[in-house]
Automatic annotation (TrEMBL):
Domain of life per record: Bacteria
Molecular function GO terms recorded: amino-acid racemase activity; hydantoin racemase activity
Coiled coil residues, start to end: none
Alphabetized InterPro entries for the sequence: Asp/Glu/hydantoin_racemase, Hydantoin_racemase-like, Iso_Racemase_Enz_sf
Enzyme class: isomerase
Lineage: Bacteria, Pseudomonadati, Pseudomonadota, Alphaproteobacteria, Rhodobacterales
Source organism of the structure: Marinovum algicola
EC number assigned by the record: 5.1.99.5
A Pfam family it matches: Asp_Glu_race
Name of the molecule in the record: Hydantoin racemase
Catalytic activity, as annotated: a D-5-monosubstituted hydantoin = a L-5-monosubstituted hydantoin; D-5-benzylhydantoin = L-5-benzylhydantoin; D-5-isobutylhydantoin = L-5-isobutylhydantoin
Protein family per UniProt: Belongs to the HyuE racemase family.
Length: 240
């Protein structure tokens, strides 16, 4: 099985962290192809960055047409719907995967993410996925995404503080980490708090493998129909 894991931003250190998390849980025989666009924002924090990342995301995806499934390693689930119009195999966003994993092991979960401007987009996704009632809150740490790479200890302290508040104030039974750059923290934070702390990267990888093993593909009907034809008609061309 060949699994394409795309970090939609251009920060290579974050792609390396995502690749490590993905390979840690991948089945024997699964090849993880971890990559990122050549163009676009260094981090994705809110609606503008999501829009700026779309062109690079589609361009890098077109370089790998022969994979069995795709994981989009951005918690906003950036470009997932567009990629489902292009790929026949499953396309899984780490946000949706993390949310669904939480609902299967807890009755109430909270999301702990980076900046406050990312919160409305995540709340929109929860509502669109039909999971808003299961989420007791989306908490922002005010940690910029790139600070997860440059000042990891300080970032972890602030993330832990919001987890503690989500447990005590929101009565969360599980925590979903709201950024791919937090993919190396879930095990340590779960031990610290004694509750499930969920990383969307590992959930998305294992879910993608399960869907491929079950022989399931993206539906060619409805909103995802006809994507290949549109892709040929309106090619994604890298900016000069």
């Amino acid at each position: 099985m060949r699994l394409l894991v795309i970090n939609p931003n251009t920060t290579r250190a974050m792609t390396a962290k995502i690749a490590t998390a993905a390979r840690r849980v991948a089945r024997p025989g699964t090849e993880i192809i971890a990559t990122q666009p050549d163009i676009g924002p260094e981090s994705i924090q809110g609606f503008l960055d999501v829009a700026r990342s779309q062109q690079g995301l589609l361009e890098v995806a077109r370089r790998h047409p022969d994979v069995d499934a795709v994981v989009v390693a951005c918690f906003d689930d950036t470009g997932v719907d567009a990629l489902r119009c292009v790929f026949d195999g499953p396309v899984i966003g780490i946000g949706e995967a993390g949310f669904h994993a939480a609902t299967m092991i807890a009755t109430r979960f909270a999301v702990v993410t980076t900046l406050a401007r990312s919160v409305p987009g995540l709340e929109d996704n929860l509502d669109r996925y039909g999971l808003a009632r299961r989420c007791v809150g989306v908490r922002a740490t005010d940690v910029p995404v790139l600070e997860l790479e440059t000042h990891p200890a300080r970032a972890e302290t602030r993330i832990a503080s919001e987890i503690a508040a989500a447990i005590s104030e929101d009565r969360a039974d599980a925590i979903v980490l709201g950024c791919a750059g937090m993919a190396d923290l879930n095990d340590r934070l779960a031990r610290r708090f004694g509750l499930p702390v969920i990383d969307g990267v590992t959930c998305a990888v294992t879910l993608a493998e399960a869907l491929v093993a079950a022989g399931l593909k993206t539906s060619p009907a409805g909103a995802y129909a006809g994507g290949t034809e549109r892709e040929r008609t309106v090619p994604c061309v890298a900016a000069p």
